[in-house]
Structure formats: C-alpha cells, structure tokens
Write a structure and sequence with these properties.
heterodimer, A: about 250 residues, alpha/beta, Rossmann fold, 4-stranded antiparallel beta sheet, 12 strands, about 35% helix, about 30% strand, B: about 400 residues, 16-stranded mixed beta sheet, disordered C terminus
Chain lengths: ~250, ~400
C-alpha cells in the first residue's frame, strides 16, 4: 500500500533579507485510501509544505527525509517525483498559452505511465472524467488554464488527478475561490479518487467549509512551520467553532 | 508571462535630429543620396553595421545566388531592365543597402502571376549561396488582378545578400508571400520588401527568420486604392551571436484599408539579439483605417536581448481602430514547474512551452507545408540547445 512518510522535515527559502526557515520539523504519514486535512492560519507554511513535497526549486530542504513507498523523493527532480506517483493540485494553476488541455493531458499521461495512452480508450476516459466534473467537452480544446475561471482551474486540477491516478495527492487550497456548486463537484472528484483505495490525499486548507463535502479521517493543525495538534474529524469542528486563536503565540492576543 | 521592460527610443551618443514623421524618411534610387550608415542613425541604431560594410559598397559584384524554382500553371519568370522597374511608379529604396542592391543587381527578376489565376499550389523559389559570395538581388513579384496565390521564397546557404523585392498586388487579388531565412550562421542578409496593395486586394507577408549571422528585413506596405488589407506575420529564433532584425512600416494613405502586424520571437544564448520596429502611419486621407500591431519575445536564457519598438502616427480621427502592444518576457519557470509536476521531463516541457508560444502565429501562416517546416525548425533549435547543455535543468 502506497505510503508517504515525512520525517523531521526542515525547509528554508532564500529571501532578500537572507535565508528563512519556514518548515521547522514536520512529521506525517499518509497511506493510500486515507484523507488527511492540514489546517492552519495564513502564513503558517502550509503551501510551503505542499511545494516542498512536489520539489519546487524555490524551497531548500535542510534537514529530514521524504519518502514515497520507501523511495527517497528528495533526490528526485520535480518530474521524477510525479512519475513516482506524486501529484500536486495547485492553488494557482499556471497558464500555458498555445498548449491545449487535451494535448497536455495526453502528454502528462504518457509521461506518468511511461507509454502513450491507447487512443480510443483514452478519449473515452477523458470525456467521462470531464463529464463527471461537469466540464464542457469544448474545454479540451482550450489552452491550459488560459482564461479559465477560478472554478474551471480547480476542476481542471482534479480532472488531472483523476486521470493520472497518483499514489499520493497534495491538494493545496483547492477550495479557495470556489462557489458552493463548484466546491461540491470538486469534492465529489476527490472522494471518488480516495474511495478507489489507491490514493492517499493530503488536503491543505484554511477553511473548514470543504470538510462538509470531504470527510478526512485525520485532521492536523499546522502553525508556524510545524504540526501543533493531531486529531480526528472532531478537531475540525472545534476549529470551526474556535478558530486558530488558541494556537497562536500569546503576543498575538496581548 | 512576466513583463520585462520594453526598450523605447534608446538614443545614440551623437546629436541626432529625428524626422518629424516616418513619412519624411528619405527614399531614392541613387546610392549616393545615402551616406554609409554609422550605427548612430535612428534606423540603424540597433544594427551591427560593422558586420555589413560590404553590403553598403556601391559596386557590382556580378555574382548571384543559385536559383531553384517550382512554378505552378499560371506563373512565369522573366527579367526586365532596372530602368523599367524605376519607371513603374513603385516605392523607392529606403536606405543605402537597398539603393545599392537595386542599382547594381544587373536586372530585375520578375515573377508574374496571371490575372485571375487561382494557383493550385504554392510558387516555390529557393535561393542559395555556397561560397559566401556578395550578391545584390532584385525581384519583382507581380500578382495580376483577382489572382489568388501563395509564394514561398526560401533563402539558404552561405552568402552576403542584399535584396530589394517589390510586390505589386493587383486589384482584388489575394497573395500570401512567405520569406524563409534559413541561412548558415555566417551569412548576412539585408532586405527591403515593398508590398503595394491594390484596391480591395489582400496581401500577407510572412517572414520566418531562423538562420543567418545578421539578418535585417524591412517590410513596407502601401495601398494603391481603398479597401485593401495587409497582414504581416513574423517568426524568428535567435541563437548565440545572431542578430535578427525585422522592421515593418505600414503607410495608410487610402481610405478603408486594414493592417495587422504580428511578430513573435524566441532568443537563447549569449549575444542573441532581436529587434522589432513596427511603424504605422495613418495619413489624413486614410479614413476608416483599422490597424493593430503586436510583438512578443520569449527570452529563453540569460545574455539575450530583445528590442521592441512600436510607433503609431495618426493624422485623422476618422478611423475604425488603431492599437499596438509589445512585451518581452523571460521563459517562465512556473510554467515549467507546472508541466514537470505532471511528470513531463524538463526538455519536453520546455519544448511544449515554446511550441505553445509560437502556435498562434505559425497557425496563421496558412500554408500547411510551411507551418510544419517552421515548427520542425523551432524544435531543431531547441534540441540543439539541449544537446549543447545550454539549459540548466530545474532541480
């Protein structure tokens, strides 16, 4: 069974005023079929965790380990990590002018599988997946993320996740900027992937709203670059009622 | 794409009095009317004139390029004396190199497309140099009234070539002219292309510049009557040490004409330099004009430089629309990260982004063979830089 293990992960970033440590010792294990919610206030380093796992060159791992099924992800390039089974649904998906969604999806699928998908079944598979996410078929001929609404971008991210079938998917604030209908459609997509049992999900979010549609088995509170509390779904309810205040430094309330 | 600064009006160190209007720039059949460029003149300030001295010298060489032609039914090739071309009331040379080329070529090569002809396939003419010879070229493409034609001029090999090409597009005709610059990297090429658009005619000038050490292509459009349309497309890819320069000047003097200019370029390697200068003049008589021009540059590495200067002069308020845009940006690491995070290897992701950048302009060429050739040539440029290890893989 696919397992992501994060051990004592420290990550820093170069800024104009010098090197700054953002992740300060993160430990977490996510297995296929599990959904973990990572919740925390703005600026706590949640997105850094997502991008560090994916291997974004801006972030430097200074300490700790990161493995997927025992394989060391830290020695892999971004594309190698994706081919090893990692997927990052981005908060701000990037426009790629002149590259159509259908061409992009086929290229990505071929890269991840190591061989081009069989044309006939692939076209059908894409169409059905788009249909489930209530995406217009004309969408496939548009350029990647160009002129997409916020909701379209997030559906497109989930579409990729469904088609690429990763072992471990990190969803970085996938709920941000979505109206209720889009939130439901996107959540259904995530639930389908998890219930297939082959994928573990790390759901990074600021708000509890998405947790009405996606039930995590594990909830983790992330503050100032590390986890400060672990629990089950009830932790999310408590956060919704009380907010993050009790986790913040005393100076914040002084 | 993040926007970088666009260079406008960089002045040389010598005092220089600019023309009040693009319309005032000198044109003449006589080489002696033009001084030899120093590089301080407005129209030469971006160009490495020292590498072009031989092309400014006013003397014949008696040499020509190797000429290979494929002419469909309805097309003939002949020659006329320079004097006949001079008497035809056509645009005159606009700089010394063009004046020398027109005066010293020894005759004008004429390509005639019969009035009313609808060509089944493109006219293809391949001009190639072999020994780096200095050549003055002079061509006149005459498209008869209501004809429909595509003409592809392909420049290859090793030469120092200065060229004047006059294109007369008859009333109601439709022409697509593709000029491919696929020279060896030691070649130089200066060109003045004048397109005269007939009444209700439509003319398209498509420049694809991939090879050559210094290439400078001036494309001018004028209108012989109302209702004409002119489209200028450009695709260029500059490598280390290459200087690729494209200038266009659309002179709107007739009413209800349109022009649309789109040039896109990529640059990689130390000293790769591209220049685009797009001038549009809408004269008082040109009521109902519609014009747009756009230049985009994609810088794939450090050490490359793209200059981009749009100029728009409008002498009447009675127009349908006029606009321009210009932007040069670095290759976007976030695009690369996005594609690689989907498992796509670095080099393939980079090719996807560059191919995507050129997709719209190449798709507008409208000659399937040429579109495929251009895309293949762009891929080859990228493959070359990958093989040379010129690009660092993102880790």
């Amino acid at each position: 069974m696919a397992t992501l293990e994060i051990r004592d992960l420290h990550v820093s970033v170069d800024t104009e005023s010098g090197t700054k440590e953002i992740l300060r010792g993160v430990d977490l294990t996510v297995r296929a079929g599990e959904t973990h919610a990572v919740m925390g206030p703005n600026g706590s380093g949640k997105s850094t965790l997502a991008y560090a796992i994916a291997g974004h060159p801006k972030y430097t791992v200074t300490q700790g380990s990161l493995t997927l099924d025992g394989e060391d992800l830290l020695t892999m390039s971004v594309d190698e990590r994706a081919r090893a089974g990692l997927f990052l649904a981005m908060q701000y998906p990037v426009e790629v002018p002149g590259v159509t969604v259908s061409s992009f999806l086929r290229t990505a699928k071929a890269a991840v599988d190591g061989e081009p998908p069989k044309l006939r079944t692939w076209v059908k598979e894409v169409r059905e997946a788009m249909d489930r996410l209530r995406m217009d078929p004309a969408f496939a001929e548009r350029n990647v993320n160009e002129g997409f609404s916020g909701g379209e971008k997030k559906r497109h991210e989930i579409l990729q996740m469904e088609l690429l079938r990763p072992k471990l998917a990190v969803l970085d604030e996938t709920d941000s900027g979505l109206d209720v209908d889009a939130l439901r459609v996107v959540s259904e997509g995530v639930n389908r992937v998890v219930s297939a049992g082959q994928t573990g999900v790390l759901l990074i979010t600021h708000y509890t709203r998405i947790l009405r549609y996606i039930q995590p088995q594990f909830v983790h509170v992330f503050v100032d670059g590390r986890f400060v509390e672990h629990g089950g779904p009830e932790l999310a309810d408590r956060l919704e009622a009380e907010g993050y205040d009790r986790f913040l430094a005393p100076t914040a309330s002084a | 794409m993040p926007l970088l600064e666009t260079t406008h009006h960089r002045h040389g160190d010598a005092p220089y009095v600019p023309d009040q209007s693009r319309a005032e720039r000198l044109t003449s059949f006589e080489p002696a009317d033009f001084g030899s460029p120093t590089g301080r003149e407005e129209e030469w300030r971006f160009t490495p004139v020292d590498r072009l001295r031989a092309l400014f010298r006013d003397e014949p060489t008696g040499l020509c390029l190797d000429w290979d032609q494929h002419l469909p039914e309805g097309v003939t090739v002949s020659g006329v004396p320079v004097e006949q071309w001079r008497q035809a009331g056509l645009p005159q040379p606009g700089d010394r190199a063009a004046a020398v080329a027109a005066a010293r070529s020894g005759g004008v090569g004429v390509i005639d497309i019969r009035a009313g002809a609808e060509l089944a396939e493109p006219v293809r003419i391949t001009l190639s140099g072999a020994e780096g010879q200095l050549v003055h070229g002079h061509l006149w493409l005459r498209v008869g009234a209501n004809a429909r034609a595509t003409v592809v001029l392909d420049h290859t090999g090793l030469a120092d070539y200065s060229e004047v090409l006059t294109v007369s597009v008859g009333d109601g005709a439709a022409l697509s002219l593709v000029t491919l610059q696929r020279w060896d990297d030691a070649s130089t090429h200066l060109a003045q292309h004048d397109v005269v658009v007939g009444r209700d005619a439509s003319a398209r000038h498509i420049a694809v510049t991939l090879g050559g050490g210094v290439v400078r292509l001036n494309t001018n459009a004028t209108y012989a009557g109302p209702g004409g349309s002119f489209e200028a497309l450009g695709v260029y890819f500059a490598d280390e040490g290459q200087h690729l320069e494209h200038r266009s000047f659309v002179d709107h003097s007739a009413p209800r004409c349109s022009s649309d200019v789109l040039y896109k370029g990529a640059l990689q390697g130390d000293g790769a330099h591209t220049v685009w200068v797009g001038d549009v003049l809408i004269r008082a008589a040109a009521e109902g004009t519609k014009t747009y021009e756009l230049n985009r540059n994609l810088l794939l590495s450090e050490g490359a430089r793209a200059d981009s200067v749009p100029n728009l002069e409008i002498e009447t308020g009675q127009i349908e629309g006029a606009g321009h845009a210009s932007a040069s940006g670095r290759f976007d690491d976030e695009q690369l990260f996005y594609l690689m995070a989907r498992g796509i290897p670095h080099d393939q992701a980079r090719r996807l982004v560059v191919r995507g950048f050129f997709a719209d302009v190449v798709g507008r060429i409208g000659v399937p063979d040429v579109e495929a050739e251009v895309m293949a040539a762009v891929e080859a440029e990228l493959a070359r830089s990958e093989a040379a290890g010129g690009v660092e893989a993102a880790q």
